[in-house]
């Protein structure tokens, strides 16, 4: 017999149970709303972008609209951890470095502020002992360190927001693949692939790498959100250096601009290993991923060379990474988010949040709050309060310009077509 919501009309139905959906469900339930969260796979699955052992939170961005979102999100992470009674975020320092002529790095430094985001700059003349993590800054490079940063445990974080949402009365259902979103009178009717039906006044779509497919199926609109299959690499730390590359020793999260774009976190997930990875991936269909892609050694060389140049003598590079883990990005052409009303027959009753382009996890709490405000009030007071103009996240920006928002700096994510 088909399961239906019957006489129960949910205030908000959230589609997608990853970090964005779980944060949205929590925020809505906190307001006293009747909330239903639908996840197509098992809760806490490893098939999307919200699993694994670490994500970086950092407020350094070349775009001016992300730092205030991260600062607000950092506050919301702390609030959620206090409510849960345990931590998922380990504070750290962030170090950004790269060629002195990098437009991205110049913009990052310009967006730092003594009031909101104090920064300390370094160049090749700096004593490595004074640079966080004792990074070697090559000639012609610069670096900037900031204190608003840390390492987030992704799977643990999603579980935390699930539990907080449940505590406030939300209903969570997994193995509930949404097949259609339709108007039903003045409400929204959602049907699943196995024949269940649910009704709500509002809907928030946070379907990750499946956002493009779902939106196209529902409206015919083709959002340019391209999933990328990515690999996270862990390298073996040489004996004697393990302790100094941990958060407790002040080793930073880091991002290195230019070619290759390299990022990483201190050693904490796996004893004796450190994450140093490429900000890159391969276009994929999220339902038909090639799990063997990237197994060759062709891409390791650039990162190994970077390690030997910036962290010389501390990491084993000869054999390549010791461990590789798959993940996914959901890329937009301009690497900016899509946070907007679905429009059309749905008006402002359906909100879509997707295309987080490999850098959204850290902002889950603030995005969750913003999309709930949009669904409930028709606008987001949080964005207005922190000074973020939501026009940069409109989905129709790609109709005006195929590449979306105009950027004055280089792209950061490499797609291996």
UniProtKB/TrEMBL annotation:
One of its GO terms (molecular function) is sarcosine oxidase activity. Residues 11-374 form the FAD dependent oxidoreductase domain. SUPFAM superfamilies: FAD-linked reductases, C-terminal domain, FAD/NAD(P)-binding domain. Pfam families: DAO. Keywords: FAD, Flavoprotein, Oxidoreductase. It comes from the Eukaryota. Its cofactor is FAD. Belongs to the MSOX/MTOX family. This is Sarcosine oxidase.
């Amino acid at each position: 017999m088909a399961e239906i919501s019957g006489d129960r009309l949910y205030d908000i139905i959230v589609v997608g149970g990853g970090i964005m959906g779980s944060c949205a469900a929590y925020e809505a339930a906190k307001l006293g709303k009747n909330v239903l969260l639908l996840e197509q796979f098992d809760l806490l699955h490893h098939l999307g972008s919200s699993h694994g052992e670490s994500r970086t939170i950092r407020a350094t961005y070349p775009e001016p609209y992300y730092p205030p979102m991260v600062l607000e999100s950092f506050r919301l992470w702390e609030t959620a951890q206090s409510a849960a009674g345990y931590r998922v975020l380990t504070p750290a320092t962030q170090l950004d470095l790269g060629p002195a002529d990098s437009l991205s790095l110049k913009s990052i430094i310009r967006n730092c502020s003594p009031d909101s985001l104090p920064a300390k700059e370094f160049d090749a003349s700096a004593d490595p002992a004074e640079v966080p993590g004792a990074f070697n800054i090559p000639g012609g490079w610069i670096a900037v360190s900031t204190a608003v940063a840390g390492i987030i445990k992704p799977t643990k974080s999603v579980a935390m927001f699930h539990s907080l949402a449940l505590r406030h009365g939300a209903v969570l259902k997994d193995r509930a693949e949404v097949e259609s979103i339709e108007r039903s009178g003045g409400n929204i009717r959602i049907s699943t692939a196995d024949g269940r039906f649910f009704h709500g006044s509002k809907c928030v779509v946070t379907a990750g790498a499946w956002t493009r497919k779902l939106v196209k199926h529902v409206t015919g609109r083709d959002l340019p959100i391209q999933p990328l299959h990515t690999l996270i690499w862990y390298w073996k730390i040489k004996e004697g250096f393990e302790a100094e590359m941990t958060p407790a020793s002040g080793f930073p999260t880091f991002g290195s601009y230019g070619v290759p774009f390299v990022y990483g976190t201190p050693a904490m997930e796996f004893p004796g290993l450190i994450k140093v990875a490429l900000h890159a991936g391969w276009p994929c269909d999220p339902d038909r991923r090639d799990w063997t892609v990237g197994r060759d050694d062709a891409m390791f060389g650039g990162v190994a060379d970077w390690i030997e140049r910036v962290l010389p003598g501390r990491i084993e590079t000869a054999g390549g990474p010791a461990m590789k883990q798959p993940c996914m990005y959901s890329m937009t052409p301009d690497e900016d988010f899509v946070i907007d009303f679905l429009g059309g027959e749905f008006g402002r009753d359906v909100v879509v949040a997707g295309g987080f382009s490999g850098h959204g996890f850290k902002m889950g709490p603030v995005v969750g709050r913003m999309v709930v405000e949009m669904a409930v009030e028709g606008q987001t007071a949080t964005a207005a309060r922190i000074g973020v103009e939501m026009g940069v996240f409109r989905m129709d920006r790609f109709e005006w310009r195929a590449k979306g928002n105009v950027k004055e700096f280089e792209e950061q994510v490499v797609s291996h077509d």
